[in-house]
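re: ur msg from earlier - yeah i can do the nicotinamide-adenine-dinucleotide complex, just paste it... oh wait u already did. ok heres what im feeding in:
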Amino acid sequence: MLHGRNALVTGATSGIGLAVAETLARSGANVVINGLGEPAANQTLCAGLARRYGVRVSLNAADLRDPAQIEAMIAEATAEFGGIDILINNAGIQHVSPVESFPVDKWNDILALNLTAAFHTTRLVVPQMKDKGWGRIINMGSAHSLIASPFKSAYVAAKHGINGFTKSVALELAQHGITANTVCPGYVLTPLVEKQIPDTMAARGLTEEQVIRDVLLAAQPTKQFVSVQEIADSVLFLCSDAARSITGTSLSIDGGWTTQ
Ligand code: NAD
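and the outut:
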């Protein structure tokens, strides 16, 4: 379905991004995998995907908090693949803290990675997409793009921001064959969620079991974590021609959380 397309997936060395990258590769796209982590393990990961699906897969370890590294990543991907057709802005981090003691550097990191990085990647790939008259931009939002939770002020601000950014870009690109949408997952059990359990225990004075039951899954009417594959399959649909008229919208995959 995506043969001949080139995709860049940020934050694809773990969790949701990795599932998205694998799903796009399985569908025939060449993929640039951006993300942090142990370089040798990430190279092995890329080689495995390339071998399994017969596509080109390359690793880019740009730290997306730094606009200069984003520019270098896009330049490198363009030189290697001849352009990016599918941009998945997925990389994200979380920090849980009361606002009055929220570390300023954490605030800046979350805004830089979860929001501003998508601005930079988008502004850099849009000219290529316009030239081709085709493109897909999918930004990883969250249930927290639509509603808030306490102690997550930076994350909620960034995730609300990405929804607004996506809508604006969708309008600008609507007549160029380029769609821009936000996918808004509920709780998906990835390292990002696993890491915030201890912080939430500390912030709210709860046990681990209480955090999972009373904080995380309390919000999700299905009482089940969303799987990374469910998110990846929705991203794949948004990349398809069947989704060519879906733009500027946000797709909630949250077990009914935000409908309450
Ligand atoms: P994860 O921690 O499993 O993966 C995060 C990825 O981002 C990793 O590949 C990591 O290397 C990369 N990354 C971190 N800092 C980076 C940096 N400075 N530069 C480049 N890459 C960096 O997280 P996840 O749960 O898969 O989250 C992926 C996205 O989904 C995030 O935007 C997150 O906000 C969103 N999301 C997650 C959930 C959830 O429940 N897990 C729910 C809603 C939204």
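cool cool. The longest strand covers residues 178-185. ping me if u need the other ligands too
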